[in-house]
Sequence to fold (200 residues):
Amino acid sequence: MEHMENLSFTKHTKVLVPAVEYHFDSDSRLLIPFTNGDKIGFLNNEGKVVLAPQYDMYYGECYCESDFVIVTISYNYGFPKSGGKVSVYQRPLFGLINYKGEVILDPVFFSLSRAIGNNKLYTAQDKNYNYGVLTTDGEEIIPFGKYDWIDGFDNGIARVKVGTISNRIKNSVNKWGLIDEAGNEILPIEYDNIWNFYGK
Fold:
């Protein structure tokens, strides 16, 4: 107990309890995550399973019908090495579910970022490392591969880059611009750099 008093809990801290001790009537979420083994599933607020345990992690909570939850599954891949050996790696693939537990975006993306101020708009990176922008209605606002990099949207604007040289290396080959949530270029793709403003 002495060690527990020294722990600092944040809004992201989860407290797990056995199902028999859980009170659904005190939980205002429309989707309630639960674990079975090492996988996460979801119950509705009546305690019925709407998604069987199949996810490794989830991000976000669902308190109203306009909320979405990002979910992940594990993706294993490998590369052959000398001597017939293979290096195996694991990374998460991201997807999206709605308040009913319906899959809106299959978990096939290397990254998935919700727009700040618009929970229906997501910047995604596919398995080919291409970036695109999708809506929860299934519309592709920016096709994958149009830009070499797309930042998350903040206040309706996102940075975009054309050029594949690392951002850490100073260069004049990469060109930057700004787009709005409809995919319009509101600052032409001609600048050597645009400082990050996401979340600021």
